[in-house]
Design goal:
binds adenosine-5'-diphosphate, alpha/beta, eight-stranded mixed β-sheet, binds magnesium ion, VC0802-like, six-stranded antiparallel β-sheet, Carbamate kinase, binds aspartic acid, 20% strand
Length: 467
């Protein structure tokens, strides 16, 4: 088989973790062709994001301190994880030249005093670009033939939407077939940077936070892999976020649709776009735990596996905001929702959910939290001077909860069980989504009620350990 193995930030977050990863890769490589995709070491992308935001106000010394910290973490890891002097020197050489480049980039930006989306992507790219040679070095240190590649060399060719770039799939396939496939066939292990891509002009882009999973799927489709494995720090996709629900369990099987819904509504374990190339090519996705490799994990395929319960999992996210649009004269006027969608789309704001009350006097739009104020301004501007809209209000302190399961299709009474369970906990439901796919019921609550709502549904449908 040909397998893509993607390792997340925690999985490559320390020398000890990287050693485990190397063992897992070695084991798989005994039987399979293996393509490795790596994230940045945990926390590094957050640090780089902070640098990209603050650097216009930084002095030269601030820049040097920052790069020094990043350097220490990576150099210490290399020294701990690679025992061969030769390989260590080579890897340290790569790490050093990347960090020199990062320092130059940051110094440049501190002088210019402005960071564009394009230069922010360049700054953000360094986490994965540092991690790939270290992981490849750790594999070579065990006697495996491994080589690190940057996304552009490997075949993640994207458009120019910096910060949220989309792959140009035929170009990805052409490149990957030329570079990666011959390596795989000869038993080499390519170690590719996740999260980043390259435009046809050779400029670095990023696929959006958490995007390394997406990289794995893009490359999996491009090399016609038999399986895409997402190695992370939990036993698979679980019945709820284990940080909110202590007795959450691993879900053994999910359909692509179920996985897409869960990921879109906050199950961070999988970047939602990962499902798209995998589904298009019919490649199974397997989610596994680097720190517990014997656990079976979650297998995601086109088939659904019915369970006794119609609901399989609950996802939630507080990373959203809600714009509430009110106006009694909206009644019977077609096209208001359409105009809102169009305007927000033009501004590049992604609408996660929209709901309209039966009386049509109010429309609620859920967008990401960082977009909510801008979204409200855009809607206000669109309807200014028309008496259609009386009030537009933005709320940041809300969470969206999504209840997911293919078994909900056509099963009556699920919604009433969901909302009764939530009501019993005294949680007020602010809005319910309308017209979403039948494998998902989603609704909005105040952020402070998120955990309560999720736990109420989790126990109502017997999803927990020992239920
Ligand atoms: P990685 O760095 O490996 O990409 P992430 O932090 O992006 O890992 O995703 C894994 C985390 O997702 C878990 O540690 C867990 O806290 C969170 N998570 C949220 N919802 C779920 C869920 N339904 N199942 C599993 N993990 C979830
Ligand atoms: N390192 C990137 C991030 O933290 C991508 C990823 O981990 O998937 O967002
Ligand atoms: Mg992730």
């Amino acid at each position: 088989m040909r397998i893509v193995m993607k390792f997340g930030g925690t999985s490559v977050g320390s020398a000890e973790a990287i050693r485990r990863v190397a063992e897992i890769v070695e084991e798989a490589h005994r039987e399979h062709e293996v393509l490795v995709v790596t994230s940045a070491m945990s926390g590094v992308t957050d640090e780089l994001e902070r640098a990209a935001r603050l650097v216009p106000r930084w002095t030269e010394e601030d820049v040097k301190n920052f790069v020094g910290r990043i350097r220490r973490r990576h150099v210490e890891t290399v020294n701990e994880v690679i025992s061969s002097n030769l390989i260590r020197r080579e890897v340290l050489g790569h790490v050093d030249s990347l960090l020199d480049e990062l320092e130059k980039v940051l110094l440049g930006l501190s002088y210019v005093g402005e960071v564009t989306r394009r230069s922010a992507d360049l700054v953000l790219s360094f986490g994965e670009r540092l991690a790939a040679p270290i992981l490849a070095g750790a594999l070579r240190d065990r006697g495996l033939e491994a080589e690190h590649l940057e996304a552009g060399e490997a075949g993640v060719i994207t458009d120019e939407r910096f910060g949220e770039a989309e792959p140009i799939l035929p170009a990805c396939r052409r490149k990957a077939q030329r570079t990666l496939v011959p390596m795989l066939r000869s038993g080499k292990i390519p170690v590719v940077t996740g999260f980043i891509g390259e435009t046809v002009d050779g400029e670095i882009t990023t696929l959006g936070r958490g995007g390394s999973d997406y990289s794995a799927a893009i490359l999996g489709a491009a090399v016609e892999a038999d399986e895409i494995q997402i190695w992370t720090d939990v036993d698979g996709v679980m019945t709820a976020n284990p940080r909110l629900v202590p007795d959450a369990r691993t879900v053994p099987r999910l359909s692509y649709d179920e996985a897409l819904e869960l990921a879109s509504f906050g199950a961070e374990v999988l970047h939602p776009k990962t499902v798209i190339p995998a589904r298009a090519e019919g490649i199974p996705i397997r989610v596994k735990n680097t720190f517990n490799p014997d656990a079976e994990g979650t297998l995601i395929t086109a088939e659904t596996q019915p369970t006794d319960e119609v609901v399989k999992a609950v996802a939630s996210s507080s990373d959203v905001g809600m714009v509430d649009v009110r106006g009694t004269t909206m009644i019977g006027r077609p096209g208001v929702a359409g105009r809102i969608f169009t305007k927000l789309g033009e501004a590049g704001i992604n609408v996660i959910m929209i709901s309209q009350s039966a009386s049509e006097s109010n429309i609620s739009i859920i967008v990401s939290e960082e977009d909510v104020r801008e979204a409200a301004r855009i809607i206000e501007r669109e309807f200014v001077g028309e008496r259609l809209v009386d009030r537009v209000k933005a709320y940041e302190d809300v969470s969206v909860v999504a209840v997911v399961g293919e078994g909900m299709r056509g099963t009556p009474g699920v919604a009433s069980r969901v909302f009764s369970a939530v009501a019993r906990e005294g949680v007020n439901v602010r809005t319910i989504s309308q017209g979403a796919s039948e494998v998902n019921i989603s609704f909005v609550v105040s952020e402070e009620d998120e955990a309560k709502a999720v736990n109420a549904i989790h126990s109502e449908f017997g999803l927990g350990e020992g239920s």
